[in-house]
Amino acid sequence: MDHLTVVDHPLVQHKLTIMRDESTSTGEFRRLLREISQLIAYEVTRELPMTTKRIKTPMVEMDAPTLDGRKLALVSILRAGNGLLDGMLELVPSARVGFVGLYRDEETLEPVQYYFKAPSELDERLVIAVDPMLATGNSSVAAIDLLKKQGAKNIRFLCLLAAPEGVARMKEAHPDVPIVTAALDERLNEKGYILPGLGDAGDRMFGTR
Ligand SMILES: O=P(O)(O)OC[C@H]1O[C@H](OP(=O)(O)OP(=O)(O)O)[C@H](O)[C@@H]1O
Ligand SMILES: O=c1cc[nH]c(=O)[nH]1
Ligand SMILES: [Mg+2]
């Protein structure tokens, strides 16, 4: 997989435009994030290993394709990652789920960790870390550091918006982790927010601030 994949599907781009619009309500924002997550999930899971199993249709027996290997692990970077997680779990209900609790210190833009819980046997699973925003990349780099420390070897990062600064930081720290996003935006502002962006994803999802 390429280091950066931008999912330019018309439905993704249409929904993203509504999410960016400041007049979109919290409920609508959350619903759209869930919908988009399923469309991006399609891309990030495209190369899952397959095998076949013998089944009987009402007509004949056949060797039918089925997913191979360990159940995949979805890891949500709290809080905003949960918006992507919910949609992906509807698509892959058997996935194991982990959580990395991080928030960005507003002054230093450094991540502050408050929680970590990962599924077992991470080294044998495809691990998909999800967070809508890749801004400086400090949070995603820290989350992936933790996942690697826990044994994860095959990791992908799924987001909604990426800034060039965050993509470069991820490429430097974790060149083995492909990024799948709905859009690559222009840049960060002086406070580390993505431009044009959509504002604070967590606040828009949960109606805080
Ligand atoms: O790439 P970075 O510069 O690290 O910024 C991105 C992080 O910022 C946001 O989280 P935030 O800290 O606002 O926490 P929240 O999800 O709890 O609102 C976002 O969901 C990412 O985790
Ligand atoms: O633009 C940004 C940057 C970081 N976190 C957000 O929620 N939005
Ligand atoms: Mg936030």
From TrEMBL:
SUPFAM superfamilies xref list: PRTase-like
Cofactor binding note from Swiss-Prot or TrEMBL: Binds 1 Mg(2+) ion per subunit. The magnesium is bound as Mg-PRPP.
Domain of life: Bacteria
Activity regulation information from UniProt: Allosterically activated by GTP.
Transmembrane regions listed in the UniProt entry: none
Pathway(s) it belongs to: Pyrimidine metabolism; UMP biosynthesis via salvage pathway; UMP from uracil: step 1/1
Keywords annotated in UniProt: Allosteric enzyme, Glycosyltransferase, GTP-binding, Magnesium, Nucleotide-binding, Transferase
Pfam name, any one: UPRTase
GO CC annotations, alphabetized: cytoplasm
Recorded catalytic activity of this chain's protein: UMP + diphosphate = 5-phospho-alpha-D-ribose 1-diphosphate + uracil
This enzyme's EC code(s): 2.4.2.9
GO terms, biological process: UMP salvage; uracil salvage
Molecular-function GO term, any one: magnesium ion binding
Domain Phosphoribosyltransferase positions: 6-208
Cofactor dependency: Mg(2+)
UniProt: 5-phospho-alpha-D-ribose 1-diphosphate binding residues: 79, 104, 131-139, 200
Binding-site residues, uracil: 194, 199-201
Assigned protein family: Belongs to the UPRTase family.
Cited function: Catalyzes the conversion of uracil and 5-phospho-alpha-D-ribose 1-diphosphate (PRPP) to UMP and diphosphate.
Protein name (Swiss-Prot/TrEMBL): Uracil phosphoribosyltransferase
Organism: Shimia haliotis
